[in-house]
Amino acid sequence: xxxxxxxxxxxxxxxxxxxxxxxxDDFDMPGMLVGKIxxxxxxxxxxxxxxxxxxxKLPGVHAVLYHKNVPRVAHTxxxxxxxxxxxxxxxxxxxxxxxxxxxxxxxxAESEEIAKKAxxxxxxxxxxxxxxxxxxxSLKKNAPVIHDEPEAIMPIPxxxxxxxxxxxxxxVQVGDIDKGFAKAALIVEREFKAHYATHCPMExxxxxxxxxxxxxxxxxxxxxxxxxxxxxxxxxxxxxxKKIRVIKPRIGGGFGGKQEILLEDVCSAxxxxxxxxxxxxxxxxxxxxxxxxxxEQYVNxxxxxxxxxxxxxxxxxxxxxxxxxxxxxxxxxxxxxSKTLPLYPCDNVRFRATTVYTNLPxxxxxxxxxxxxxxxxxxxxxxxxxxxxxxxxxELRRKNHIKSGGSSPIFEKLGEGKAGVKQTIGSxxxxxxxxxxxxxxxxxxxxxxGRCPQCPNSKINTLKRGFGMxxxxxxxxxxxxxxxxxxxxxxxxxxxxxxxxATDLGTGSDTILAQIAAEVLxxxxxxxxxxxxxxxxxxxxxxxxxxxxxYLSGAAVKKTAEKxxxxxxxxxxxxxxxxxxxxxxxxKTVKFPDGKNVSFYDIAIHTLYLKDQFQIAATESNISHxxxxxxxxxYVEVEVDTETGEVKLLxxxxxxxxxxxxxxxxxxxxxxxxxxxxxxxxxxxxxIFNEKGKLLTDNFFTYKIPSTRDLPEMKIIHVKSYEDSGPxxxxxxxxxxxxxxxxxxxxxxxxxxxxxxxxxxxxAERVLxxxxxxx
Amino acid sequence: xxxxxxxxxxxxxxxxQPDEKLLETLRNNNYKSxxxxxxxxxxxxxxxxxxxxxxxxxxxxxxxxxxxxxTTLEGIGTIENLHKLQKSFLAEGAVQCGYCTPGMILSAKAxxxxxxxxxxxxxxxxxxxxxxxxxxxxxxxxxxxxxxxH
Lengths: 775, 150
What we know:
With 775 residues, chain A is α+β, with helices and mostly antiparallel strands. In chain A, helix 6 packs across helix 7 (264-274) and helix 10 packs parallel to helix 18.
C-alpha cells in the first residue's frame, strides 16, 4: 500500500498549526447577537411565575424565550439514529426544572454584558420540590416523580416507566446462571461504582445560527452529528428539514459530548425570534454543569469459575444514573453488557440494567460508552478470581478470552434498543496484545504470591509497588443501524472532491478518509479535497460516534472510490483502446499492460470538454452487518504510599489490536489520548455535589484533568491484525483505550496493598480508607 | 480608551474598554488563532507570548500591555512558511483537534527560545499549564524533543 498505513500529515494540519482553520467561534456575522441561557438554581422545582417583561424592555435585547413562547415538543437531545432509542422527555423550555443548571429562559442581546443583565432581570418564582440526589433513591417507594409530564414517551418499543423514575431497562439471559453458579468452585461478587465524569473538550459547546438570503436557517455548530442536529432542530422548532442547513467547521474535541443537541435548538429559536445571527458559547462552568456526563453507574457483578479458572456463570446487574433527562439512557446501559461480556464467552450469562432519573446533571455519550463502567467491574473481578485461584491474571485472561472464529450469544441478544446482530470474530490480536504488553511492563508471575515486596529503591517502608492489568474490547459502529455515505467527483486537473457526511471532530477522519480514497485511486491524499459535514452539500452520515468513522465511513469512501476508478478506467480504455479489465491506476495515470497510459488530467479534460462529456462522479453508501471489536491489554505499575494513600502511576502500557492502522501516528494518538483521559478518570476527575445537588467541581481548579506533569512513563503498542470486513483491514481505535485505567490501576493498588478499590477516582483519601479497612 | 500595542512586531492602535481582556482585544482584531478555553486562567488555551513569556490572555488586561511585545501564532509562521515547531507538531501527529495547538506551540517556543536542549522534565514543566484533551501529550513532547540542539 502506498498511502494507507502511512503516517500522512493531516489534510487540515497546516491550517491548524497556523491558527487559520475556522472553529465556530471564528465565524462572525454583521449584527450578530450574544445568546445566554438562564439556569435553574434548584434541583427540582416548578416555575410558578416567570416575568420576562423587564428583560425584554432592556435596550439591546432582541429576544427572550421561555416555556410560554416556544413550541412545546417532547424530544431527546441525544443525537442518535431515528427513531432514537432515548426517551422523548426534554422540552426546549419547560415549566418544571429537573436539575441545577436546567434551562429556564434564554436571551439574545447586542453584547454579553447586556445579555447577562437581561438574565438578571427575568423574575422567576419557584415552588421547590423534593429532589432525588442519588440513583439508589430513585426507585424507592414514594420517591418524587421527575418526569410526570404526560408527553414523556419512548419512541421505540422498549420498557419505559417514568412514573417509577425508570428511563430504560433491559434483561437478557443466555443459558442458566443458577446452574452455572452451581458448577462453580469459586464465586466472587462485588458492587463497583463508576463515577460521574465529563468530556472537557478544550473548545466548549458553541453554536452560531443565522437566517440566510433565502430565509433558511443556517446552523454552524460544534457537533459530532450534523444530520441529527438538522433533524432534531426541525422537530423541536416545527420547521421543515429543507429549511435548515447545518455546517460543521473544525471542532475542538468532542469525545461524545457533542453527540448532543444542546445549544442548536435554542440558538435557532433566538434567531427566528430576532431575525438576527445569534451565537451561544458555553462558559467552562456551564460546560461542566450543563453539558453531558458519563453515566454514573453501580455495577453489581457475580462470576463463577471452576478451580481451573474457566468461567461457568456471569451475572451483571447495572444501575445507571441518567440524571434529569434520559439521553442515551438505554444504549449506554446496554453497552455495559454488549461491549464487555463477549470478551469471555461463557455458557451462562445474565445481563440486567436499569437506568433511573435523578435530579443531577444529565448523562450522555462519553468515549467508552458503558464499556468503561462495566470493564471496571469485570476486569477487577477477573483479577480477584485469579488471586483467589492462584492463577496468574494474565493466564486467566488467556484461558477465557474470545478468539478469532469465536462468537458470543450476547452479540445477538443485546443490541441498541433492539436485538443485536449475530457475529463471529474475524480478526483478534488479543493474545499478542497480552504477550507484548506483559513483556513491556515486566510482568512476572511472582506478583501473584502475596503483595509486592516493598519498593526496592525506597528506604521508606510505607511505599509499596504493584502491578495490574486488564483486557478490553469495544466495537466498530452499530451494526445494521448506522449508515455512512460518500461522494467523489473528478476535477479538470485530475484532482477529486471527496464529500463525506462523516464528522472530523479532531480525530483526523478527513485525513484517513482521503488516504483510503487516494489508495484506491492511485493518487496522493493531497489530490483529495475533503469537505465533511455540511448537510446541504455532503451525503448523509450518522456522525462520529460508536467508534464508527474509520470502519463504516471509511468503507463507504472505499466503495465510492472503486466506482470512480471503474469510470476512469472505462474512459481511459475508450481514449487509447486498451483493455479495461487489465488496467491499473497508479501515479494519477491509468496504465494498461501493453504499455499504453492515460493520465487523470487527460481523462478529466476528455470527459469535461472533448467527447460524450459527463461528470465523473459517484456516491456510495455503507452499512455494516457486524461490529468487529478492537481488543487491548493494558498493564500498569503503581507505587502506593500506605501511610498517605497517595497513588503514583509509574508506568502504563497499552497494547491494542485495531486492525490495520490507516494512519499509524493518528491511530496511536487516539490510543494515547484515550489512555490519558482514562488515567484522569481513574485518579483525578470527580463530580462533587452539595446537599442541594449543585455541582461544586465546575472548573479546572477543582475538576483536575491530566496535564503533562501527571503522565507516567507510557508505552503504546499496536499489534498487527487484518479485519476482512473493514476498509484495508481496519477496525476502530478511538474509544477502547479509555476503559483500561480504572480496572488496571485498581488491580495494581490491590497488588501493592491488598486493598480493592471499587469506586473511583482513586484519590489518596479513598485509597487510605480502603487500606485502613484491611487492618 | 485608545491603546498602542506591539503585536507580532507591528505597532497597532486599538480602541478598547478599560476592563477589556487581551483575549477579546486580539480576537476582535482578527488574531483568531488565540482561542477561548475557560476564561478563568485554568487551561492555557489562550496562551500568547508577552515579551517572550507565555501568558494567559483571558486573564490579562489589555490596558496593561502598553510598550510590551505580544506574539500570537500568526506571528511565528504561515502555511507557506511554517515555523520549525509547526512542522514538527505536524510530523509527530501532535495536532488532533488543534484547538489547544496555538497556545501549546507558543509555550513550546518560549521554552526553546531560552533553552535549546530541554530535558523531558523541563518540557513537561513548561507545558504544564497548557491542557490538551486529545493527544495525551506524548506526541507534543516528542515534537519538541525532535527540535533539540545537541
